[in-house]
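Lab notebook, bench 4. Continuing the backlog of folding jobs that were queued last week. Each job is logged with the same field layout so the records can be merged later without manual cleanup. Today's entry covers Transcriptional regulator, MerR family, a 135-residue chain. Filled in by technician R.K.

JOB TYPE: sequence-to-structure
TARGET: Transcriptional regulator, MerR family
LENGTH: 135
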Amino acid sequence: MTATMEKVVLPPIPAKRYFTIGEVSELCGVKPHVLRYWEQEFTQLRPVKRRGNRRYYQHHEVLLIRRIRELLYEQGFTINGARNRLDSHGGGAHGAPAAAGDQVEGVAPPAPTTVEVDVEQLRKELLHVIDLLNR
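JOB STATUS: finished
OUTPUT FIELD FOLLOWS
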């Protein structure tokens, strides 16, 4: 790692269910074309795609993108190195931090895992998605 790499302070992530690629770009300090490229390189990154192939990212994906950005831009990992680091730490956003103080500033706690989400909440989310698709 070189002395020129600095930690960038990113804006807090709003309490929303879905984020457009433009919003994620601003929240993570990464251009939209880079996000699309990272989707090909990191299998953990799978935004929901709706009409017109528009991408909608969830909170845990925004956290993952911030982690990928940190590994690549601040810690100097290659794409392969970052991919291996995320794989070895359970997917990155929910995995154990790589080092002490490795938390990205301005980030809310990670979203609950699938096991922790209750059925009623899942039902509400599915109804919301159906409503969005019917618009």
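OBSERVATION: The mean pLDDT is 79.
SIGNED: R.K.
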